[in-house]
What does this fold into?
Amino acid sequence: MLSVGDQVRWDERTWTVAVLEGARGRLVDAGGAVAAVSLPHLFADPHFEVCGAPRPQVPPFALLDALPDPVREQALSWERHVREVETGIPDPVGGTPRPRYDPAVHTLAQREAAKAEELTASGLPTSVATVRRMRARYRDQGVWGLVDQRTTRPRSAVGRADPRVVDAVVAVLEEQRDRSTGTLTRLRDQVRWFLEDQHGPGAVGVPPQSTFNRLVHALADGQGMLGTAAQRRWHASRPAPPFVPTVALRPGEMVMMDSTPLDVVAVLADGVTGRPELTLAVDVATRSICAAVLRPPGTSAVDAAVLLAEMVAPMRMRPGWDAALALQRSVVPYERLLSLDERLEGAAARPVIVPETVIVDQGRVFVSSSFLAACGSLGVSLQPAPPANGPAKGHVERTFKSVNQQFCQYVVGYTGSNATERGKGVEDEARWTLAQLQELFDEWLVAGWHARKHSSLRHPLLPHLELSPIQMWAALVGVTGYVPVPLAPDNHIELLPVRWQVINDYGIRFDYRTYDGKALNGYRRRRSGSSARGERWEVHYNPYEPERIWVRLPDGFVEVPWIHATQVNMPFTDYTWRHIRKTVARTADRDAHELALARALDALLKRAGAREGTRRERTVAARASATASVAVGGPTAGTAEESSPPAFVADVGESGQLDRDPEEPYDDLDGFDEGEDGNDTSSGDVRRYTSRLLNPYAEADQWL
It folds into this structure.
């Protein structure tokens, strides 16, 4: 209650209540300032309080339902007794007071004494002081004050365990987060040793094994301290709550990229099997898989960079695909988009999304200079996620699980997501080549992923309606607009890894390969004008096709072939070349050694193709053959058979693992030979002949 003369605290000042008139009052502070306020407004202010008086508390009525029934009934019974003592009527519905509790006849002290006698006579010994104490509790806390507080005391999860033992268990559990998983018996021994080191031998006893096990589970369950080593590491990598959801409001605003081994065994070539690696780009706003690439294990910067180019290009319809998979048959405003981008003619129903920000992990592929340059050339911002933090790119991590459940488990050669799910003879079941598996996956993306309803995609005006990725893209593109980004030939070359070389009399040499052509004649032993790069020239190369390089000259890029390309009649990659370098010893000068390497490479590929080589040689040739078969130049632009930008693959060893990191720096023992004399052994002009994996001129013709 508030009365005239009370001191109150409001608006960071102390006031005296001067006047109370109905629902209004006048307050006067120490300086004589007067304030007329509404009492409801005054009482609603969270900082208002009456000085020297406790603020009334609302009883926690919801907690009454959590009490045991006998405890709750006892509190409600006391409420009736207290109400009868104070008002003479036990129930709020009204009635006639009993003779001993009539306020008109008996004083409050007499009624308290009568209630104490009544409760004692009923078998519940009660004194007058107890009745008065219950009245005071009811006045301050309501029904909750009448509850037996012994039943509301919080119970410790560890019971009466020694706090020193509890601290030791927690310390040891934290210490072994990154260790291999052990038993609780080992943990008990470690706790005993910890206590001996901290308090001395025998000073603190360790509970018996069964009691110790209960104590450990009470402390560790739900805290990520038990379980497998992978589970403990995952829990430790989680960010501290509260969690902030990742929100993107327009296509391309936030795209997440990552790679993972696919749970399917593929036939690479010549009977060699292995699990390919899947690299995805997922748009957060639409949950679209903007681009996907399959290749043998070992993601390289080329794979990641070409994935960027594939995102901004429409996916072409393939022979044999159902007409319902065409973009023209989807919910997007096709005619309007076609007037803006002619590349959409004959395209499949996969969103075309230009990324603004790409979120990647700290893998060396995604933070390499090649990938950074590729992002810069397309105007894409790169945002690395914190190390070992899966939730930072949770959308793409969850997409991998969905791909496993919705696609992989239906494919012959499915391995399961872990060793316990792996079937017998999975390698013998494998029948799909890498190129065929890529084709199946691309078709599933259009027919399955982008057409399937997603629980996290909701229309802003219809929040109860689930949308598919293609429907969400159609809804957002009408608001944010659509700007096509066709790539020119030079843009594709820019996406390839770069190195800086000197143009000598004999051409350009690195990694025991010499590239030369007549187009370089005017630039031999000349400075490039790039002082930051030591006056060397910009050279782009493709580690999956070492037969040619691209050199940036003042008039643009020119393609320069390897001088010994005619010596090798089968496709090979940088991995194959490095294998030859390890097996062929250098016994002559540099030029003769390079020619010997080329001839040895051709002989190896020939023997492996005829099944005459060693197992290692057949494996090397199989990787090169699988690489070349993944993406071959498609038909002419504008046809239904036109393929999407090619997928790049890397070579792997016999075990199915990458024998060399594609991002490993080249051995420059024979590079930068500015002081040596050499002859121009090129056979003619620089040619623009078709690349097995990336023909930038043909790709540009498709997209322009």
